[in-house]
Every structure is written in structure tokens, then in C-alpha cells.
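Fold this sequence, please.
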Amino acid sequence: MPDPRFFDSLPALSVAELAERIGGEVLRGGDRKVSAVAPLGSAEAGDVAFLGGRKFLTALAETRAGGVILPAAGLEAAPEHTAIIVSDEPQAAWARASMFLHRPVPLQEAARDSVAEDDTVVFEPGVVLGAGARIGRGTRIGANSVIGPGVQIGRDCVIGSNVSVCFALIGDRVRLLSGVRIGEAGFGAAQSKAGPVDVPQLGRVILQDGVTVGANSCIDRGAYDDTVVGENTKIDNLVMIAHNCVIGRNCLMAAHTGISGSCIVGDNVIFGGQAGIGDHIRIGEGARVAGGAGVLSDIPAGETWSGYPAKPIRQSLREAVWLAKQASGKARS
């Protein structure tokens, strides 16, 4: 279930009612009530999930979801206890279902004394505070920043000017420099006959103690799970961290680093400027990614990779030298 501090749950619907609204066909269990969307692996009896492809057939067979949206080709793998909605665009139908079951908590401004832990919290001019937010002692919120509903910010933090923080839990001694965006919706779309449909972004951002995020950097909230940045990680200006990423402790990210969705980064990893990481990549503890590298496969712990596509640095340099020799040889001929 999405965090109720950030998302309102709308009235439950029967599977038949939901199918009618999302354009699916009920095969069984039309009277069953569902009240939330969830992935197959974490769904419970009151949730509706979807089958995203054949690689998820095992998860479908083991799901505890009360209802599942799937194509006709997946019917045989569906467990008998689930209600079934048949759709030839199951992810898009699931995305539509989320809009009928969940809604972000709207921004309603709260009084400053109801948000601040004590009078050591400083609010510069123009700050907007959402209802249910909480800010720890010794924290300073910069001019014209927006702290969304339900956001929790720890003690002795520094939030710069023109920062927005939503759908987030922030630890102690965190620094967010001017223009940072924390908790915006991640990029995800499902194809449908009517065009792309936004995939629901129902997770949170968690920044642990001592994290620094540089000016104009963005960290997206999770699609369903959380985006997490570990203790004491330092992020430069103009860095992008996409939804569902888990970043370890004591990592360093130079400017223009971009990390795609659902990556897992170990502790003490260093990224050079303009490093780009593909989605669902795992980077081991203590690894180093050279500036400008394009990472398209997992990096083992302790290794340094460079180039595009990125490879172990010695291999990458050997290939660069060989290519330079070939090019210079052709030029002389």
C-alpha cells in the first residue's frame, strides 16, 4: 500500500467496475473488491497486479494478488484464487487502474509552528509547507522552497532556495542546494492503442543522514518501492537519479552523472562527470566509473570501468590505442 502520508486511497472497486473503467474484460471474480495496485511480487488480497511479460510467469503463479490484469496468453499461469481481467495492454490498463484507486495528497499549506520541531527551525521568505510535514530542530529552509504534504526532514539540515521536496523522508544533516528536486515522478510510460500512458509512481525518496545533493539535481521517487540514497553520499550539481535506484553509503557522483531506473549501487562507489548508467544495472562496492563512461552491464566490486560501452579500464584503453593506430595508419596510406 502506498504511504498514506503521501497518497490518498480512493474507494474500493469491484473487479467488474474496475474492468469497465480501464477497458478490460472480466474472466472471473468480478464481485471481488480491490483497493490498491501493486506489483505481482508484493501484491496482497486487496490489490490488483499485472503480468508484464513471459519472464514474470513464475511471479504470476506465486502471486497473492486479489486480481490480475493479463493478456489471454497468460491465463494458464494464473493461480485459481485470483480474479482475472483480460487486456491486450495489461501494463497500460494497470496504470489506468492506479488513477481510480490512488491520488497524491493535495498541497494544503500548514502553519509553521505545526511543522517545526522547535523555534530553532529557520524559514526564509516565501517558504511553503504542506500539511503533515515535520522539520527537525536546527534545520534551515531556504527562500521560496516548497516542502510537500507529509514530508519528514531531520535535524540540522540545510535546504537551499527554490528547492522542492515531496514524497520524501530526509535524515539528519542533509544538504540540498538551490534548485534541487526531490520526489518528482519518475519517467515511465506503457504503450497503448491510444498512445503512451504514464505508469504510476507510488513510492518515496529516502535520503539518509549526511547526504549532500548539489544544485539543480533531481532524485525521482520510486515507481512502487523507494528510491534510497545511503548515508554520507555526496552528489554534485546537475545529477539525475531515476526511480527505484538504491545508492550505497559514501558514494561520490560528479556533475552530469545520470543513473537510470532500478539500479543498485554499492558503498564507496565513485562516478566521474557525465557518467551514464543504464537501467537495472548493479555496481559493486568500491567500483569506479570514469567520466563520460556509458555503463550497459554490471560492474563487479572494486573495478574501474571506462569508455562506451564501458569496460574494465585496461581493456578500454587497449582498444582505444588499437583504434588510434588503425586510424593513423589509414590516414598515412
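The helical segments are 15-22, 57-62, 90-101, 112-115, 313-332. The longest helix spans residues 313-332.
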